[in-house]
């Protein structure tokens, strides 16, 4: 890790007419981190990423990638980033191997090396056997793999993944994460936006929770989760007529229904033994017990008041084609005033 941050932004503002998509965003992502960006729909995540890669021009504020200003040192900043965008924006007239070679060439990589890298990237994401096919002929899952391969072909120091697993099946999601985790273990900084909260929980060193164009908080997933309460669910041999009295500081509240007692505590792992001992001392016999932690998703909902955009990582995947449309070529700036991407 160096002193120079992978991403450093301060007071970043983006206005679309009257709408403030980014409202004074401050964020620092360290070199080598696996960093998650969480937030409800419209929080400004994609806008932030588009400013980093030069697809959108900031209204005001400051943004640097590895010390390069994203406007003044645009070319250096852009060359450091590999982006797998949310939208499928791949040139569909060329075999995918050539698409990757063009991308490498655009970033100044000589043809022979570009060929080598295109092959290596296709192998890495597992679609080398499709190298002569066109984008349109790939399945939805293969298209996602290709977006990752294209992001990797320049061997970026910062890999940005904007909802890379939206709508893909569980197996593919795991495959993609193995590739990305491996890259991160070898020093690549990863910025991930995802609506799969458990994905962030499992992968990220730290996450930023964004809402309405600002960062509400930055913390490790564990830190965020420790802010919630845990629930101990206990099945008793008897059916107490009322909640057993607990003389324990750890217990926040408790409720009983038939033979099932639910006890809310701050730290379930620590409190469980005391709770069981107290119950046994009061003459109850514990038949079964379960401790459930507050999920990151619940904390997220508490922070943003929005759960419509989040999904549990429980196999709710579609066919791999969801969420993708052609958004034109990757190298076309979204706004006319931005110089060449
Ligand atoms: N080109 C644009 N013109 C006008 N408004 C825009 C444009 N792009 C984004 N916005 C608005 O800016 C806000 C932030 O959008 P953005 O796409 O950055 O959010 P997001 O956090 O990526 O959302 P999602 O999770 O749905 O992808 C939204 O209110 C959106 O409607």
Automatic annotation (TrEMBL):
Q: Which InterPro entries does this one have?
A: AAA+_ATPase, ABC_transporter-like_ATP-bd, ABC_transporter-like_CS, ABC_transporter_ATP-binding, DrrA1/2-like_C, P-loop_NTPase
Pfam families, per database record: ABC_tran (PF00005), DrrA1-3_C (PF13732)
Write out the ranges of the annotated region (Disordered): 305-341
Query: Ranges for the ABC transporter domain?
Result: 7-237
State the Gene Ontology terms under molecular function: ATP binding
Keywords, sorted A to Z: ATP-binding, Nucleotide-binding, Transport
Q: Identify the domain of life.
A: Archaea
> Which family does the UniProt entry place this protein in?
Belongs to the ABC transporter superfamily.
What PANTHER family is this protein classified in?
ABC TRANSPORTER ATP-BINDING PROTEIN, ABC TRANSPORTER ATP-BINDING PROTEIN NATA
Question: What name does this protein carry?
Answer: ATP-binding cassette domain-containing protein
**Organism annotation:** Halorubellus litoreus
């Amino acid at each position: 890790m160096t002193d120079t941050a992978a991403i450093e932004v301060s007071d970043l503002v983006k206005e679309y007419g009257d709408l403030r998509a980014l409202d004074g965003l401050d964020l620092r992502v360290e070199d080598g981190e696996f960093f998650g960006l969480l937030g409800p729909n419209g929080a400004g995540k994609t806008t932030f990423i588009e400013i980093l890669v030069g697809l959108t021009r900031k209204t005001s504020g400051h943004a640097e990638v590895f010390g390069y200003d994203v406007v003044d040192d645009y070319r250096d900043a852009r060359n450091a980033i590999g982006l797998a965008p949310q939208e499928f924006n791949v040139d569909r007239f060329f075999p995918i191997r050539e698409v990757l070679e063009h991308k490498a060439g655009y970033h100044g990589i000589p043809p022979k090396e570009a060929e080598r890298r295109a092959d290596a990237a296709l192998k890495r994401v597992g679609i080398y056997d499709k190298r002569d096919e066109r984008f349109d002929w790939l399945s939805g899952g293969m298209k996602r793999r290709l977006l990752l391969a294209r992001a990797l072909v320049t061997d970026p120091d910062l890999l940005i993944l904007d909802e890379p697993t939206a709508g893909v099946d569980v197996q593919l999601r795991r495959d993609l994460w193995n590739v990305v985790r491996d890259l991160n273990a070898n020093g690549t900084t990863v910025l991930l936006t995802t609506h799969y909260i458990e994905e962030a929980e499992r992968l990220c060193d730290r996450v930023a929770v964004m809402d309405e164009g600002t960062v509400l908080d930055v913390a490790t997933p564990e830190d965020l989760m420790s802010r919630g309460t845990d629930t101990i669910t206990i099945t008793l041999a008897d059916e107490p007529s009322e909640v057993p009295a607990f003389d324990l500081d750890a217990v926040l509240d408790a409720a009983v229904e038939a033979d099932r007692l639910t006890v809310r505590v701050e730290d379930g792992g620590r409190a469980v033994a005391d709770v069981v001992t107290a119950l046994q001392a009061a003459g109850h016999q514990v038949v079964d017990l379960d401790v459930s932690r507050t999920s990151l998703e619940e904390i997220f909902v508490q922070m943003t008041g929005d759960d419509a955009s989040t999904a549990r990582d429980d196999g709710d995947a579609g066919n791999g084609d969801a969420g993708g449309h052609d958004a034109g070529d990757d190298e076309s700036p979204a706004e006319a005033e931005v110089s060449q991407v």
